[in-house]
Every structure is written in C-alpha cells, then in structure tokens.
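Sat 14:20. Reprocessing the chain from the morning session after the first attempt stalled halfway. Input below, unchanged.
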Amino acid sequence: MTETEQKIEALRLHTASQEKKNLITIALIVIAFLIPLGFLSFLKVIAIGYLIYLSVQIYKSRKHYANGVKKIISEDVFSKVFDRHVFKPEGEYNTKTLRDLDIITVGTATSSNDILEGTFHGIDFKRADVTSTTTVSTGKSTVTITNFRGQIYEFDFFKNSKSYIRIRTKQFLGMGKGRKTESSRYITFDDQEFNDQFHCFSNNDHEAFYIFTPHFMNKIKELRNKVDGEFTLVIYNSRLYISIFNNTDSFEPKVSETSNRSYLYSVKRDINIISTIIDDLDLKNTLFK
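Finished this time. Tokens:
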C-alpha cells in the first residue's frame, strides 16, 4: 500500500467508525418505535428530531471524508504531475458556456464540481465533473432524464480561431446532432469515415477546413477510440472544449469501498485523458500562434 493509499485508508476507517456508531443508534431508535410508550409518546417526537440530527451527521461525515480525500490527491498526486494546479472541489463550471456553445445538452437542472485548473506540458487546461438532467411531468408521474453525466475539459488551442466549430459523435446517447449554435450549419469533410462518425457544425466553412486537416481528423478518430464514452468537441475563440459522456463522477470517493485503489485509478485515468488530449491533438504546437 502506497503512502497516499495509507492516508486515504486511515481517513476512511475513521469516517466508517463514526458512521457505524450513528447507524447503530438509528437502528435502536427505530426498534424503540415499535414499543408501546403510552403517555410517554411525546418521546417519539424527540426521537424523530434525533434521527434527523444523526442523518445530517452522517451526511457531514461523508462530505468531510470526500473533501479530505480530495485534499490528499491534490497534494500527493496533482502537485507531482502538473506544472501548476488549483483544485476546487466545490467549484462550479459556467453553465452559460455549456449552453451557449452546446458543449452538452443542458437540461432543467445542471450541477458541477471538482474544478481542476492548471498547466500540463505547458498547456493551460480546466476540467470539471458535470451532470445535467431534465425533469418531465406526465401528469401522474415525474420522469428525470439524464442529458449528460461526465467530464468537461477545456484547453488553449494552437490555431487562432474566432469561428465556431462543433463535432459530436453520432452515437452520443440520444443527444442527436445538437443545436445550430452561433449561426452554424451542418457541414461535411472529404473524409467520409469522419463524416460517418461525427455530426459537424460550423459558422465558417473555410476556417473549419483550415483547422480540420486530414492529420487532425485522424487524431480525433484515434482519440475517440481511447476515451471511455461518447464525446463532443468544440473549438471557439482559440479554445478547445471536450465533453465526455461516461456516466461517472471521477473524483467522488465512497466510504463503503474497502479498497481505494479503484478510486485512485479513476483519478489517474482522468489525468491520462488530459495528457492524451494534449499529446494526441498536438496542442503544444505553437507554429500557428
């Protein structure tokens, strides 16, 4: 077990011990409810209040554990990998950017956290976990649809661009082609394999063809095969945005997991995605700046 794993496990055991005590107390109170109390029934009101208190304590302890683990990975993992970084577990990604650029389909409720900003291989980046859902009422019942659950990545782009270009995998879990954002229209390229895999929109055909060279399109096809999930790629104002819909929240640890190796693996997988995007799409290229 590595030093980082030992730190996380010590924190997990402490949290699990506190949670176990609270759960036992809750169980005893529930059992007491089954006993006729007669004129002492007012004690049930007190017991209900205490149940609420214990439930809040369990929530707070899990939140404290998650924040503690994130502090550990910030100090032990991120600081060793990135040139610089700022990790904000409670940070929020700009929903307006997601909606305006149609990076994801934004539903009636959107939440985000675990904002990680930094520099890697000389390239500035930002990533976040994002979930967006739409709640629909059918009269007798309410249905919640997950529009997106995954990660958003944002990078400096190596070609100066003021136009809007978006590609989205055609199997993007029912999201379809997307909206005609920024007065964009559907376009196709000479690469038929690329056209078969992606819906492409742009408001400037000339700039789209200038950026999406055969070499760049091949790199995008290779990237698609490496990431776990369908994705959207947007280039706008010399920024590159990528959303990956994989139905995961990468940086959330669970007290119930007796081994934290799978959690650390998910963190390192996220780092590898950042590295892969920068390297495979040649974002370090300064020739066109």
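The two ends are 45 Å apart (CA to CA).
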